Fold this protein.
Amino acid sequence: MDSFENITDFIDSELRFQNETGLLRSLFPLEGSQRGVIKTNGKPLVDFSSNDYLGLADHPALIEGAKKAMEKWGMGARASRLMSGDLEIHHRLESAIAALKGKEASLLFGSGYLANTGIIPSLCGRNDVIYSDRLNHASIVDGILLSRARFYRFRHNDLNHLEDLLKNHRSRYRRALIVVESVYSMDGDQVPISELLELRGRYGAMLMIDEAHAIGVFGTKGEGIISQTGADAVDVILGTFGKALGGYGAFVAVSNRMKQFLLNRARTFIFSTALPPAVIGANLAAVKLLEEEPERRSRVCELASELRQALKEDLGLNTPSESQIVPVMVGDSQSALSLAESLWDAGFFVKAIRPPTVPEGTARIRLSVTANHSLKDVRQLLEALSNGL
Ligand SMILES: Cc1ncc(COP(=O)(O)O)c(C=O)c1O
């Protein structure tokens, strides 16, 4: 008995370690956030940390959509979709997403985390192999671990490395799945899609692409990156409503057959309560706004391009970004925390992103540009950055 570790000692030593290495996380309740300005301790801070890329989270159309749906359908969905929770409004949202993505069908999930952890184990099991980009999101990694398939991580966006791995191992396994993001959540760069489609065909692999950070921002209609280059060749396209679309939940855009398969196999779909009507009502309103207010999309892209260019040319900083997610690489966690603090003092809400969210030695400030920002905000942020570096 004496050799068993005491739970309090274990927790204390873990927390002490996190603290000493600059990795301790804590919650930070905000007093409010409106149109991209956060209030905390009575002080307004311009928010450069959110995923509300189109500034839809407090859009009146989303609030109205949520209210109307709640009044009509009630607060909760009451059960999973396969029990009595399947409402007409869920199907309406799925049709809107299928049309946006140019796929036959769509299936909703409770969140992006639930989608990734449900879908990947449905597609692959013990006799299969998964190839995953090294920078894929934690929910993809957890889906892979749940699948019990053999998996290989390839160097970020390095398709030569992916091909070497496919050459060496693919033939030993029954099914293969390649999984990537289209815009990477912490680096803001993009997947080399046409080369990937070519590889997928050559090695008989399934392809799954997580568009969590591309939906709403990229594409002529805000459909993301993949539809432009051939959604037909991608088996599963995943997107979330909690980022550019300002709401909550997630979807996959797939073939009719794949939808039928997933709703029979994905445990996070089968065994979880359907998304509540208010959330669906807001998500439907957001999808409609993609068409009605395209200027939000162009604004984000223009401001992000301005920020990327000024970081490189005026401040001499290198950023891998090709999107609205613009990381400023710092290196060690303590320096990233200090830079975040100096930006707070200058009136900007930013977060230091540290391991394990990003690889060791690559702590950074992750700046995200949204339609709530003005050119003046971006210029003032650049000035504060040059003072804080
Ligand atoms: C690439 C990616 N996929 C999935 C998710 C999870 O989505 P959700 O927040 O809806 O669970 C995230 C969240 O940050 C993400 O960045």
